[in-house]
Amino acid sequence: MLSKSMSHVIQAMPKALVMLGLSLLLGASFAQAQDKPDELVKTWSTEILNAIKADTELQSGNIKKLSELVDSKIMPNVNFQRTTALAVGRSWSKATPEQQKIIMQEFRTLLVRTYAGALTTVKDKNLQFKPLRAAPEDTEVVVRSQVVSNKGGEPIQLDYRLEKTANSWKIFDLNVLGIWLVENYRGQFASEINQNGLDGLIAKLQEQNKQASKK
Predict the structure, then answer these.
(1) For residue 98, is it left (φ>0), alpha (ψ between -120 and 50) or beta?
(2) Average pLDDT for 14-18
(3) Among 51, 69, 111, 113, which is least packed, fewest CB within 10 Å?
(4) Phi and psi of 128, rounded to 5°?
């Protein structure tokens, strides 16, 4: 199972929070690059949270509806290629363009399906953002937040890594409860690649997604 470590994280926290974080990771439609990244994440995450709260199909983990959300509002504005390249590691540069394309597609599907059931408790959750620690000239920043429940309990860490591109800030990594998604998958992907090569990783991802689709 490629997502064993992250699965433990999912089980340890309210599931809706992981999907919210994933939505941000897969891409946020931000304003121009000169805007403050923390304010942009705050604005966009609030919009996503409200959209989920208003849609019972998203809350129920409807794969078709989730894919439509990802394709229409999330994926067009993310550097998901960088996210995937970082997860694959050194072997990414050795992959053919076709292999890279397939790995990105299968990784996206894996993430969407992994967190598809993470929306059932979203109605009582809110985000609190910590002060941004960054200089004006920084091109990569970490936006730190915590998720709090109206029902009480300990806040849950939820952080984002963003990069400054020519026209926008984009998220490329996500930290839930101290585990960065890219780092988590890098170790798992490296193990598969070392044993069976890039084609083996592709086959593993495809099989895992195939099995998940039957559930």
Answers:
(1) alpha
(2) 54
(3) 51
(4) -125, 130
pLDDT, residue 30, reads 44
Rg for the chain, CA atoms, rounded: 17
Q: Which residues of 20-54 are buried (b: 16+ CB within 10 A; e: fewer)?
A: bbbbbbbbbebeebeeebbebbbebbeebbeebbe
CA distances from 55 to 65, 66, 117 (A): 10, 11, 14
Tens of pLDDT, residue by residue over 30-61, are: 444 447 888 888 877 777 777 777 888 887 77
C-beta neighbour count of 195 within 10 angstroms: 10
110's CB contacts (< 8 A; 6+ apart) are 2, 3, 205, 208, 209, 212
Among the listed residues 63, 75, 54, 156, the one whose alpha carbon sits nearest the alpha carbon of residue 117:
63
Kindly report the average pLDDT of the chain as a whole number: 80
In angstroms, the CA 43 to CA 199 distance is 40
Measured between alpha carbons, how far is 127 from 8 in angstroms, rounded to an integer?
22
d(CA 17, CA 56): 16
pLDDT, residue 32, reads: 43
Alpha-carbon gap, residue 48 to 54, rounded angstroms: 10
Enumerate helices (H) and strands (E) in the chain, giving the number of each.
8, 5
Residue 28 pLDDT greater than 50, yes or no: no
Instruction: Evaluate whether 193 touches 103 at the Cβ level (below 8 Å).
Output: no
Give this prediction's pTM. 0.77
For residue 7, what are its two tokens? 């699965």
